[in-house]
Amino acid sequence: PDDVHSARRLLDDADILSTLERCFKVIHDTSRTPSLGEVPAKNTVPGSRTSARVTVINNLARFLKRNIFDVVKLRQTRLDHNLFDIIWPAMKKSHQMRLVDDDADAGVVIPDFDCYVVFREFLVPLIKDIHCLDISQNLKPHPTSNFFPSGLESIPVEGKTEEPPLETEALKEIHLNLDPAGKWIKSTLVECCRNLEVFELPLTLSVAQLEHVERILTGRLLSKDFSEAIGEETLGQYYSMNEVLENPSEIRTMLSAYGLLIPLLNTNDACQLSESMARNGQYWPYGRGVYVSHTNDFVVWINCHEHMRILCCTQSETVADIGVAFSKVGRAVQFLDEIISFRNTYYLGNLTSRPSYLGTGLRLSYI
C-alpha cells in the first residue's frame, strides 16, 4: 500500500522481455572492438567514469550486471515504463561507440520521475558515477542551488586592499574569462533545466497538460519583471515549435547561428520518427516552443525533454567570458524559483529527464 511509484505488477510482455535480454547481450558483448577514444584521461576523479573516456555501451555494462538486470527487468512504473524505456538510447548503433563524455544523455533517459525509485538499484550507482561521486558511499542531502552565494563579497585576495562590500545586485554579474588571449575558445554555452513540481515529464503529458505548462512558463517569461531580472529593458518573444520547424525558418536559422538550437528530429523521416516518439511522445510539436530574449543570446525551450531548458551564449566581443552567461542564467533561475515550484528531491536535487543534469540542472560547455 505504500508503493506509489510502481505499477504493482511485474512485466509479463514476452516480446519486451525478449528485447531486454537481447539488449543485455549487446551491452556485455565481449567481442566489441574498443573505441579509439577510450583512453585514460588526465586530471579526473579516480574511480569515476571520467577517469577513463569509456563508450556509452561499456559504461552501462559496469552498472547493469546480471544480478541487477534480473532484479529490475520485470519492473514497471505507474505509467508502465520499463527498463528498455530508460536504456534505449544506448542501443542505437550510432550511440554505442559514442564516448560518455561526448553524450549529454550518458546513454540513458528518464521517461517519468518514478523511474528514479523503481529502478534505483541500477540508476543510483550510475548517477553517482556520472557526477563523479564514490559509488560505495551513500548519497548525502543535496544542497539548495545558489548561483550567487552571499559570501562572495568577503573572499580575501592576497596583495589587495580590502574594499567595501559589493551591492547585492553587483554580485549577480560574474566575469570569468577562460581565454583572455582569445586564441582557443570559439563559443561558450550555459544550460540550466527545471521541471514543474505538479506535472510529469513532457514525454508523458497530454496536449492539455503540455499547453498548461506552456502557459504557466510563458506567462512568467513574457513579463517586464523577467526581462529586468536578466538585465534587459525590452521584452523577448515567444515562438511556437511549428514556427521553429517550418521550412524555411528564420528563427531556426538565427538560433543555429548563435549555438542555441537544440537537436530537432525530423518526424517526416521514418528513421527518426520512432526516436522522436520515444523522446518527445505522440503529441509533438504541440505545447512546445522557445522564448528568445531581445538580445538573442538567451533562450528558454519549453517542453523539450524538460519543462524548461534555459540556454545562454556569450556575445562575440566576450566569447570566452562564460561568467556573463552563467550570471544571466542564474538571475533567470533565481527569479523563476521565487514564483514557481520546481520538482526537487532531498538527495538528488532538481529532477530531470537526463540523469547527467540532476542536482543543479546546470551544464557549462565551450568549443
TrEMBL record:
Keyword Transferase included in the entry's annotation: yes
Domain Phosphagen kinase C-terminal, chain residue ranges per copy: 184-367
InterPro entries reported for this sequence: ATP-guanido_PTrfase, ATP-guanido_PTrfase_cat, ATP-guanido_PTrfase_N, ATP-guanido_PTrfase_N_sf, Gln_synth/guanido_kin_cat_dom
GO BP: any one term: phosphocreatine biosynthetic process
Keyword annotations from UniProtKB, A to Z: ATP-binding, Kinase, Nucleotide-binding, Transferase
Single GO molecular function: arginine kinase activity
SUPFAM superfamilies: Glutamine synthetase/guanido kinase, Guanido kinase N-terminal domain
EC numbers for this chain: 2.7.3.3
Residue sites binding ATP per the record: S187, T188, L189, V190, E191, R309, R363, L364, S365, Y366, I367
Family that this chain belongs to: Belongs to the ATP:guanido phosphotransferase family.
Protein's UniProt name: arginine kinase
